[in-house]
């Protein structure tokens, strides 16, 4: 009389015979054998169950499924043979006329099976295989609703096939990725999957944005509407926009997450949606004051959607479910005189006391999420977002252990969904797996007083870094070995001016010994991202952006600017010197940005002021920070680590124009002054410097430090 048997998640290597004698016949209809150690030898024994309708043999050790055995399972309606090592699905699957679901992801299938010949077929999942082409009949099966071909890197579809497949209600295929323009390895990658429940209604939704707001943030979410289809879709379409708006108002993780859920609650009410749903959001961001520093993962959830982080192979829960069993929630609900039914639900509607929607249950049911933030470390491997159906079927320990050794995020998400279904889940399921690659170079441990060993960074490193002696009141002078053709001093020898382009990064070893007494902040231990800064030195890094000087050869840069007398420049590149040591705890420190003017272009150097300097010194230098740039735009007053970003944000010009610097110096471009005019030119330059100083003094009197002008006109 056995009709249903679930023997998943064991260590079975063999199956018993279907019957003990020829007189008895098996009437088994559903057999679940997922996550065992079954081999090909077990397949012939399945033929003893001719009335089998549902067969799940995912994540075993099958290498083939004999065609003759498949032909005898004529009543089969659903088969799941994912996670094995199958290279093909037998063509005798055509004998299974009632087959409506074929799930065979995470195998080695190279040939597209004959499933499209089945008239009753509804769902086909062939993701994460090795398909190279798809063979389709002239007319697709009339009931086909879902075809998943993602994770097949060799798959190439022609235009005609794509047109035909686009008629399917849910057709999934890999989108061509643009890749990372910087060439840096990705810090995170994700895969997600959704599966409908018994009633064929997809009541879950997933959100994934690898490049949220900018290229160094990500947002992931899972939404579960229980039996409602509309609510998850509304949350999926709306919450990312709300979070982006809240990020503009506050940078506090708990504040912007709570505000996001409250605004979403208001929008659900405005839309007239009385039902509700669970939600979990995970936001990865970096410190805005330290773009090269740590990444923070912030998780917020209501209802039974949850997140778990795998750190050192162990699960670290980041979510919390607020239900009647929570004493503080039970006390709060009783204060509001709510009715608690025998099945532990508020007014018989929901057992979650914090969930989106259900506005008619307010104030007993509220949308305030549980928020938890954590700094990502190199020990963090991945994190999982799952809907209620996933966590009802799998514990967090089981989920982490199941996908820890799965290298592909999509295959990991598929595995979680398959395991949950094989373990008896009949609800809609959604799972998102985000794999992390946080290297030690992107993990700041300054606050932990630890210095991790060096390792390749996630972002391009500078070509050369050198620490040099620098007087407090002197301008940043190029190294003598930098290859510059001109030197700048109090008396400029104009006969030495040329347009030779050279690197400003010295190849010499560091000239300043770093000892325990020399740091500006004694007693601090710094990580590789934030080395200790010397009070009389600066770190120099080559900018990744190369520009020309602020003026073209004819002295005109744009239509609205006139040439300035006494300034001799040629097309060359701008190099930015930036002190990027950790100053998170010293935000009140001031910046001083002196600028060197030479025929080489503009050299900007930035380091922190001495504490004794007055505030006016911050604006005494004739730099481009907070002043007019050569292209007519105004650079805002920013901190030192943003100088490179300001340079890279400069507008592009067409070839041969503003940003087209000559690759090699042209002898014809050199400006040579006859000896008889040398004294006269020196005098002109001296007069110009005096005028410049007078203008600065006048501007300081006219615009105090509290009320700065939008820009300053300077020779640069």
Automatic annotation (TrEMBL):
PANTHER family: PROTEIN PHOSPHATASE. Gene3D superfamilies: PPM-type phosphatase domain, Ribonuclease Inhibitor. Residues 690-702 have a biased composition (Low complexity). One of its GO terms (molecular function) is protein serine/threonine phosphatase activity. The gene is Phlpp1. This is PHLP1 phosphatase. The lineage of its organism: Eukaryota, Metazoa, Chordata, Craniata, Vertebrata. Pfam families: LRR_8, PP2C. Residues 189-436 form the PPM-type phosphatase domain. It comes from the Eukaryota. Residues 492-512, 656-716 are annotated as: Disordered.
């Amino acid at each position: 009389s056995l009709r249903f048997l679930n023997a998943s998640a064991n260590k079975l290597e063999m199956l018993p015979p279907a019957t003990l004698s020829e007189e008895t016949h098996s009437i088994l209809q559903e057999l679940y054998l997922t996550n065992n150690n079954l081999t090909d030898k077990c397949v012939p024994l399945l033929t003893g169950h001719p009335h089998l309708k549902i067969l799940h043999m995912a994540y075993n050790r099958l290498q083939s499924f004999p065609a003759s055995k498949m032909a005898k399972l004529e009543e089969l309606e659903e088969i799941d043979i994912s996670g094995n090592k199958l290279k093909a699905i037998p063509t005798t699957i055509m004998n299974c006329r009632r087959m409506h679901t074929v799930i065979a992801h995470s195998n080695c299938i190279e040939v597209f099976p004959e499933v499209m010949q089945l008239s009753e077929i509804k769902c086909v999942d062939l993701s994460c295989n090795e398909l190279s082409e798809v063979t389709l009949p002239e007319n697709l099966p009339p009931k086909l609703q879902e075809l998943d071909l993602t994770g097949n890197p060799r798959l190439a579809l022609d235009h005609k096939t794509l047109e035909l497949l686009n008629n399917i209600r849910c057709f999934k295929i890999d989108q061509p990725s643009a890749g990372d323009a910087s060439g840096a390895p990705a810090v995170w990658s994700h895969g997600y999957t959704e599966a409908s429940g018994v009633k064929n209604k997809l009541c879950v939704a997933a959100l994934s944005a690898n490049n949220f707001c900018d290229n160094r943030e990500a947002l992931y979410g899972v939404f579960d509407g229980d039996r409602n289809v509309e609510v998850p879709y509304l949350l999926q379409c709306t919450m990312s926009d709300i979070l982006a708006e809240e990020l503009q108002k506050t940078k506090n993780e708990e504040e912007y997450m709570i505000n996001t859920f409250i605004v979403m609650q208001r929008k659900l009410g405005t839309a007239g949606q009385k039902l509700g749903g669970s939600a979990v959001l995970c936001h990865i961001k970096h410190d805005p004051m330290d773009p090269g520093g740590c990444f923070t993962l912030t998780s917020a959830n209501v209802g039974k959607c949850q997140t778990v982080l795998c750190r050192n192979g162990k699960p670290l829960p980041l979510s919390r479910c607020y239900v009647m069993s929570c004493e503080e929630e039970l006390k709060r609900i009783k204060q509001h005189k709510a009715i608690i039914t025998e099945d532990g639900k508020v007014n018989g509607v929901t057992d979650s006391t914090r969930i989106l929607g259900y506005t008619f249950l307010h104030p007993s049911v509220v949308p305030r999420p549980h928020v938890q933030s954590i700094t990502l470390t190199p020990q963090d491997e991945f994190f999982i977002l799952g809907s209620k159906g996933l966590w009802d079927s799998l514990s967090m320990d089981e989920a982490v252990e199941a996908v820890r050794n799965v290298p592909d995020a999509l295959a990991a998400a598929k595995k979680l969904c398959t395991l949950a279904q094989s373990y008896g889940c009949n609800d809609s399921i959604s799972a998102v797996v985000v794999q992390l690659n946080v290297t030690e170079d992107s993990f700041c441990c300054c606050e932990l007083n630890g210095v991790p060993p060096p390792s390749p960074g996630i972002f391009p490193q500078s070509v050369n870094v050198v620490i040099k002696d620098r007087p407090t009141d002197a301008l940043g002078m190029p190294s003598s070995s930098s290859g510059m053709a001109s030197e700048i001093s109090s008396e400029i020898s104009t006969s030495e001016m040329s347009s030779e382009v050279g690197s400003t990064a010295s190849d010499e070893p560091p000239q300043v010994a770093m000892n325990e007494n020399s740091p500006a902040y004694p007693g601090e231990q710094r990580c590789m991202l934030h080395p200790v800064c010397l009070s009389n030195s600066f770190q120099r890094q080559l900018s990744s952006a190369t520009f020309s000087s602020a003026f073209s050869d004819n002295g005109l840069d744009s239509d609205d600017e006139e040439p300035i007398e006494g300034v001799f420049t040629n097309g060359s590149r701008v190099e930015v010197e930036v002190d990027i040591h950790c100053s998170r705890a010293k935000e009140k420190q001031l910046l001083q940005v002196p600028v060197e003017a030479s025929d080489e272009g503009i050299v900007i150097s930035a380091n922190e002021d001495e504490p004794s300097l007055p505030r006016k010194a911050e604006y005494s230098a004739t730099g481009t920070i907070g002043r007019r740039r050569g292209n007519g735009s105004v650079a805002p007053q920013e901190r030192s680590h943003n100088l490179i970003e300001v340079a890279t944000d400069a507008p592009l010009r067409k070839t041969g124009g503003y940003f087209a610097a000559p690759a090699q110096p042209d002898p014809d471009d050199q400006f040579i002054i006859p000896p008889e005019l040398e004294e006269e030119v020196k005098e002109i330059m001296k007069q110009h410097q005096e005028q410049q100083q007078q203008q600065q003094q006048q501007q300081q009197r006219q615009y105090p430090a509290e009320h700065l002008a939008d820009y300053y006109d300077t020779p640069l």
